[in-house]
Backbone:
């Protein structure tokens, strides 16, 4: 049954082949060209294009490996002199590489769904009825994971490789859930060396492994395990970073990995705390300075085009340091709670979710896709408790909606809105909406009018020429309220457990 | 034994759960979603100068109907070159083009500018055209299918399949999606009207049936494939009324029938009937005898015989007579049986048999005409889901050469795979025995043949002497299947015993 599910999902992805793709497509094509044509020493310093590699080395190696295959498909896509090159063969190859590497995600989902079902249902497993139920819960969790609409929109249309990265995360989580902590740590380190955004989740791993794996008995026992874990982390990292240290490129690599010269918010504000902050700033401007939105074009440009800095006028400007400190401060309570809890992997998953969500709320230059860092682990808990279930329903729906502005082409309008509708109806039919209270239901329903207003109404009212940026602001403001609410609710739930 | 039971329950558990979760609303959304996914792909004749394809034909009709007065639509003139995609469908198609053209005139006027807009292509235009198909599909075909199955399950509820499953199997049928939303045509209009007319027949609304079917006929003349069963069913029906009630009641029914058909035709042909020259020109355009016996590679008998003996050399009129004769012979049994026992299930079977006979034996058949057979088969599918799905899968396969030409290979493979998986899981759900029957083996072999041929057509270059080798083999392979299915469906109709009181 699940194998037929994989085939169906893969077929859907194939159907989406001719969809619109963003500049990320060119970014990844450029990385293929860079790794194929240039020596390792120039990978992170190549400046033939504005899209120099900014992922950790394992991802560069992954691109290098893909490029070897791409050479058989269309050698022109590997030329660094080509710009915005997208021949049919190139599109087909790159899309197919996403679809095929997604099988890692399927594998991780299967592993994780099975491990979580064992954990949740373990005391009652002997009774037949419960066995049936757990079979269904394994299936539903797997389905919700691999048919995650946000991931589908981001990977298959917008173009990125999040699927297989989340697959590695799930493999790692499943090992932790089964108590195989070394393997869990190993896969998480591998993941970090593919994409460093997963550093957001690292505190939870660190605390859980330190307290519940190392400091279990005496200090000697702890040191032994700690050293072993340290060796795993160092070993993996040295393999991936080693060649760059050897070539003296390591400083350049880190400069690429942590670019603080980017703005607080992305071109389109991710629905986090800073979106509310920006909105408050503009609101204050309008009230106190009689600010004219139409005349001043400087403020409109911050929501369009490439990455740009956004100067707050009324409220104090935010520096990377502030966001960093805020993130740490708000992570501490849940990490403390994890430290104090008895050894329960479910608590670890919840802490993981909260770490992801907190960094999403307060992080510097966060993308809306980062909400998946919380949604994917949250999917595992849909059958654990009503609170987890309601949180999943809310957050997964908001996360899907929040990536809509990325897919702004007319052909994608029906694709994205119908996919969201199918997803919501599925959640409704499986009874997930019963876990929501009236306010939450109302909030989710209000997404419908918002979509119609921002995508259709704006054009019909001919506001798109005068206020082209307002729909985006409205969307991120609306979504950030939902995310903020979820964050507070889930945090309180976790702390007060 | 108990262990076996447990595994059975376990195996079927998830399909049962899914059956509960996937209700009709969700199925409809998914059906629309797949239609849109196919819309993203290429259409027929994209950027292929000078003639392009069916997409350009439809656009050209919008251009002609909006720019020219009704009297010139079907006539050759300096403004209307009939050799360049001249209008060759009945008036309702022309009116539909006119409506679409009016909308385009408001939104994108340069796309229907007379004569300068030939071969007009743009992303936005593609979007509008795709929307136009999706809208009529949503308004006509999808509601018609839902309505039909609701009526069907009211009359016969001892089926293997549930209503939702049948609707899913019908709306996810790849052939129609690929032709309408990929290749680009408006088959969903005529087929939707046809399905609606059968649905209203199932509710015994005679006038409605006649009006809807006449409209279908006036959208595409190919609906004539379905006309004979309607005719014989109603003749049989009137005869039964005469026997049961009186001559007057029968006459009343007959006159209602004739009147409703006549009035519908009259209204639809209103702009053309004033002048007999107009009328004959339209009829001449609709039934072009000067074209060959078949186009490209069609999976019918003539294409099969053509392999051995070149039929194209024969006189068109002789050929047309032969076609007429053979078609007449092959529809005889089913029509006479229907005349004798006018029951609704027999009517459905007769629709299959007639349209399949027409497809196999008649003159000027397109490969797309197989859709006219596939839809009645899908309507009959609750009665024998196994055979029907097998047949329907082959109909999609028979259009493969066309789909490859249109660059629709990826959606063809994806949709067919999805369709097969949905069917496979439904099969597991409804049949409790293990699949050991010889028929299953045969089916799997036949579908495996399709997979092999698909692979050959994509990957292997045909020898230079026979550039059309794979399309030909595909059409011969499908044709042999269709002949066997014709025999099978004829048998199921003739063997079907209807208790006397359960007629109508």
Residues:
């Amino acid at each position: 049954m699940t194998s037929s599910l994989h085939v169906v999902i893969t077929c859907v992805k194939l159907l989406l082949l001719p969809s619109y793709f963003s500049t990320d497509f060119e970014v990844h094509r450029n990385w293929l060209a860079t790794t194929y044509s240039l020596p390792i020493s120039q990978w992170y310093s190549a400046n033939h294009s504005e899209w120099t590699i900014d992922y950790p080395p394992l991802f560069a190696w992954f691109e290098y490996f893909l490029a070897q295959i791409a050479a058989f498909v269309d050698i022109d896509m590997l030329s660094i002199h080509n710009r915005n090159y997208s021949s049919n063969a190139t599109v087909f190859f790159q899309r197919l590489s996403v679809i095929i590497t997604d099988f890692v995600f399927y594998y991780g989902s299967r592993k994780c769904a099975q491990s979580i079902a064992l954990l949740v249902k373990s005391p009652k497993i002997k009774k037949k009825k419960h066995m049936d139920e757990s079979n269904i819960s394994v299936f539903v969790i797997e389905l919700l994971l691999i048919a995650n609409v946000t991931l589908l929109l981001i990977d298959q249309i917008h173009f990125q490789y999040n699927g297989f990265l989340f697959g590695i995360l799930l493999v790692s989580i499943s090992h932790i859930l089964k108590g195989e902590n070394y393997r869990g740590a190993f896969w998480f380190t591998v993941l970090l060396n593919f994409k460093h955004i997963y550093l957001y989740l690292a505190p939870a791993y660190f605390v859980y492994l330190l307290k519940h794996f190392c400091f279990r008995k005496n200090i000697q026992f702890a040191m032994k395990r700690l050293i072993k874990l340290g060796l795993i982390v160092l070993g993996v990292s040295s393999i991936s970073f080693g060649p760059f240290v050897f070539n003296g490129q390591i400083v350049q690599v880190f400069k690429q990995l942590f670019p603080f010269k980017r703005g607080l918010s992305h071109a389109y504000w991710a629905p986090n705390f800073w979106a509310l902050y920006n909105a408050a700033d503009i609101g204050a401007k309008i009230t106190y300075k009689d600010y004219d939105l139409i005349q001043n074009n400087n403020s409109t440009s911050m929501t369009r085009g490439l990455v740009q800095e956004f100067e707050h006028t009324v409220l104090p400007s935010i520096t990377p340091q502030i966001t960093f400190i805020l993130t740490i401060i708000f992570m501490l309570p849940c990490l403390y709670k994890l430290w104090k809890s008895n050894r329960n992997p479910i608590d670890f998953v919840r802490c993981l979710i909260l770490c992801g969500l907190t960094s999403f709320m307060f992080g510097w230059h966060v993308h809306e896709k980062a909400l998946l860092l919380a949604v994917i682990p949250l999917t595992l808990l849909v059958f654990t408790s009503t609170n987890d279930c309601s949180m999943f329903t809310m957050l997964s729906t908001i996360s899907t909606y929040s990536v809509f502005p990325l897919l702004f082409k007319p052909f994608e309008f029906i694709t994205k809105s119908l996919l969201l509708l199918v997803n919501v109806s599925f959640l409704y039919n499986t009874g997930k909406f019963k876990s929501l209270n009236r306010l939450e239901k109302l909030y989710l329903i209000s997404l419908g009018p918002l979509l119609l207003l921002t995508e259709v109404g704006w054009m019909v009212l001919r506001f798109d020429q005068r206020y082209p940026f307002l729909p985006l602001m409205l969307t991120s403001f609306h979504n950030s309220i939902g995310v903020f609410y979820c964050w507070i609710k889930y945090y309180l739930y976790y702390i007060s457990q | 034994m108990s262990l076996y039971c447990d595994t059975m329950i376990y195996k079927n558990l998830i399909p049962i759960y899914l059956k509960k979760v996937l209700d009709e609303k969700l199925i409809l959304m998914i059906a629309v979603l797949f239609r849109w996914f196919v819309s993203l792909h290429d259409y027929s004749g994209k950027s292929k100068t000078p003639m392009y394809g069916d997409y350009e034909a439809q656009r050209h009709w919008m251009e002609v109907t909006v720019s020219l007065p009704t009297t010139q639509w079907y006539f050759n003139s300096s403004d209307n070159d009939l050799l360049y995609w001249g209008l060759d469908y009945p008036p309702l198609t022309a009116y539909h083009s006119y409506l679409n053209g009016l909308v385009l005139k408001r939104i994108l006027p340069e796309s229907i500018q007379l004569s300068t807009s030939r071969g007009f292509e743009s992303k936005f235009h593609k979007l509008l055209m795709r929307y136009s198909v999706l809208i009529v599909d949503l308004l006509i075909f999808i509601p018609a299918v839902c309505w039909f199955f609701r009526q069907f399950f009211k009359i016969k509820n001892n089926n293997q399949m549930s209503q939702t499953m049948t609707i899913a199997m019908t709306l996810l049928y790849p052939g129609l999606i690929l032709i309408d939303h990929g290749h680009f045509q408006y088959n969903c209009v005529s087929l939707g009207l046809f399905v609606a007319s059968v649905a209203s027949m199932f509710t015994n609304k005679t006038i409605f049936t006649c009006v809807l079917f006449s409209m279908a006929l006036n959208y595409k003349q190919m609906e004539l494939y379905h006309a004979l069963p309607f005719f014989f069913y109603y003749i049989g029906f009137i005869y039964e009324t005469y026997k049961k009630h009186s001559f007057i009641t029968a006459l009343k029914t007959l006159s209602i029938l004739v009147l409703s058909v006549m009035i519908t035709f009259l209204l639809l042909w209103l702009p053309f009937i004033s002048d007999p020259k107009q009328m004959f020109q339209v009829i001449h355009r609709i039934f072009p005898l000067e074209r060959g016996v078949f186009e490209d590679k069609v999976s019918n008998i003539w294409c099969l015989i053509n392999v051995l003996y070149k039929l194209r050399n024969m006189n068109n009129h002789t050929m047309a007579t032969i076609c007429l004769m053979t078609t007449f012979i092959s529809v005889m049994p089913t029509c006479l049986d229907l005349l004798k026992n006018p029951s609704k299930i027999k009517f459905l079977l007769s629709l299959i048999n007639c349209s399949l006979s027409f497809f196999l034996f008649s003159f000027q058949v397109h490969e797309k005409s197989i859709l006219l057979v596939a839809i009645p088969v899908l309507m009959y599918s609750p009665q024998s889901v196994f055979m029907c799905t097998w047949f329907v899968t082959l109909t999609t396969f028979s259009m493969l050469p066309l789909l490859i030409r249109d660059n629709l290979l990826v959606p063809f493979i994806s949709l067919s795979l999805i369709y097969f998986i949905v069917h496979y899981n439904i099969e597991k759900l409804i049949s409790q025995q293990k699949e050991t029957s010889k028929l299953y083996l045969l089916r799997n072999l036949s579908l495996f043949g399709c997979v092999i041929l698909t692979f050959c057509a994509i990957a292997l270059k045909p020898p230079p002497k026979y550039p059309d080798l794979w399309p030909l083999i595909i059409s011969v392979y499908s044709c042999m299947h269709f002949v066997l299915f014709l025999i099978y469906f004829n048998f199921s109709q003739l063997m079907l015993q209807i208790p006397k009181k359960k007629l109508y």
Remarks:
- The longest helix of chain B spans residues 123-155.
